[in-house]
Amino acid sequence: MYSLSHGSVPSRRGRGDPRALLASLWPPFPPPRRAPPSPREDAAALDPDEPLVAVDRGPEAMPWHPARMDPPLAYRLCVLGAPRSGKSSLLARLTSHAFDGGYTPTRRSEQLFTTSGAARGAPQIFWELEDTAGVPAGRPAAALAALLRPLLWYERRREGGAEEARLDAMGLAAMAARGADPLASVLATARKRTGFVVVAAVDDAASFELAYALVDAIFDRLEYEPHHDAIACPAAVVLVGSKADRPPSQRHATAAALARGVEARYARRVSYVECSAATNENVAQVLHEALRRIKELPERKAIKEARRRGRGRAGLSFDTLVESATNYFRRPSDYNT
Fold this sequence. Notes:
Blueprint: E1 3-4, E2 10-11, H1 18-25, H2 39-44, E3 52-53, E4 73-81, H3 87-96, E5 110-116, E6 125-131, H4 140-147, E7 155-156, H5 162-177, H6 182-188, E8 195-201, H7 205-222, E9 236-242, H8 255-266, E10 271-274, H9 284-295, H10 300-311, H11 318-328
Parallel strand pairs: 4-6, 4-8, 8-9, 9-10
Antiparallel strand pairs: 1-2, 3-7, 5-6
């Protein structure tokens, strides 16, 4: 006969306890299988601030496409640049048609509003322009961490926010039912950004280097590679060379050279416009170029597909996979150099 020894191994030591013997011979019950997390629980475990591409219609996916919105049209642009690059002067020209030669640094972001399009018979467009503080040189990525957090037109939040957007939509409908001003109704709702205006001074080479770094940071935020992605840029990006009234002796490069540099660097996915807030030269072209880029925005499904191809099935970008493979096949002697 077998008896139960220490460790649940049968041994020849008398009769033993039948219940212990049965317990040693019967296979143990498997642990209870945990149900897979629900979509709500799975979304709660992720970063709520990380946006997703919104493909379906819904409170977090409106408008469906900026170029096909129903009137009144409202677009939101974020204006970035180095200190003293002329951001506030440009916005003052666009909104109040005035120019102040003095310099007052922008301490915090401000929202300015203007309209365009009605004079030429086109649908009237309401522009919300975000005037931001100057980005310090050398740390564009750190300075943009908070500035680039708001959602873009094709994104939705992982969790939360949907109820607020639904209440905003209900409030908009209630205001329209009461006969409220459409402009006030549009401005009362939280709009998502449709693009960026990056400003640099033509007499300051360092401001252009910072502007290039800002555009690169924007593309990182968009997960967009201008030289590899087949679609247009998911957000309208316009690089503005301000202070175009400076004499040629004060410019660090000609207008043609700067335009060619922007075109080559970003594969024609970024527009370049030179203007002067002091003389009002070519200032309106900034919004015209932004509108042209907005009309070229790709569909949400195309953006999601391009992002999926860029990340690969494992959720990693192609550059990350290449770097990982390179590090894997490096010789041990390479790490000692």
